[in-house]
Design brief:
The protein is mostly helical and 105 residues long. Helices cover 84% and strands 0% of the residues. It has four helices and no strands.
Length: 105
């Protein structure tokens, strides 16, 4: 169950990061509210996952899901640049997350 909590926490991290961008510096109420609610949900589920998973593993995978998800949202929906160096950097994050998961067994 810890891995399910962690996966949903990571998805909520993508939501709050995307909503933060859309909040225009917290001046738009709906994206700001979505950001706050999803942030609390993400942190709450991360805390539940950390009851059963090592700190380093849980945190790294949570951040990795959020970072890669936000990267993809930026490219697909917000017109962020796609460059070889950015894709390489994102790929290294994915490799790190996969290796961390494999190290846990």
């Amino acid at each position: 169950m810890a891995w399910a909590y962690l996966a949903v926490a990571g998805l909520l991290e993508i939501v709050w990061a995307s909503a933060m961008k859309q909040s225009a510096g917290f001046t738009r109420i709906v994206p700001t509210t979505i950001m706050v609610v999803s942030m609390f949900g993400s942190l709450g589920l991360l805390a539940l996952a950390m009851k059963m998973l090592p700190l380093g593993t849980a945190y790294m995978i949570w951040v990795g899901i959020g970072a890669i998800g936000a990267f993809l949202v930026g490219i697909v929906f917000l017109g962020d640049q796609v460059t070889l160096l950015r894709v390489t950097a994102a790929s290294l994050i994915v490799v790190g997350v996969v290796l961390m998961k494999l190290a846990e067994g």
